[in-house]
Amino acid sequence: MSEYTKSEILLNELNTIETQVSILVSNCSDLTNRNLDLEKQLESAQQKISELTLRIVGIESELSEIKNKKDNNSLFDSLSSEERANLKSRLQNLLTRIDYHISS
């Protein structure tokens, strides 16, 4: 069995340490790239959340407008059938007169 000298032992240990450092550097690089990818995904998700929030606000305002229109339509719902018929007749007369004036 041959005995190693101190310098050979140190060189072997340095080679081992160098290999470990190389592996750690590679792992660090991989993790850095993974973090960058995750940050991009997070940015994209936040942008989508922002867009969806704006869409929700728009839909809620449309819903509010529809509810207001429905409340305004309740005016016609409160009319009796006789009043509706009278209103319908008056509107038809006005439309007939408008048509006559347009065609003249």
Description:
The protein is an all-alpha fold and 104 residues long. The protein has one domain. The protein contains 2 helices and no strands. It has helices spanning 6-77, 81-103.
Record keyword descriptors for this entry.
104 residues, mainly alpha, 0% strand, rod-shaped
Task: Break the fold down into its secondary structure elements and pairings.
Elements: H1 6-77, H2 81-103
Number of strands: 0
- Calculate the mean pLDDT score and round it: 89
Write down the Rg.
Answer: 40 Å
Helical residue percent band: over 70%
Structural class: mainly alpha
In short:
By secondary structure, the chain is mainly alpha-helical.
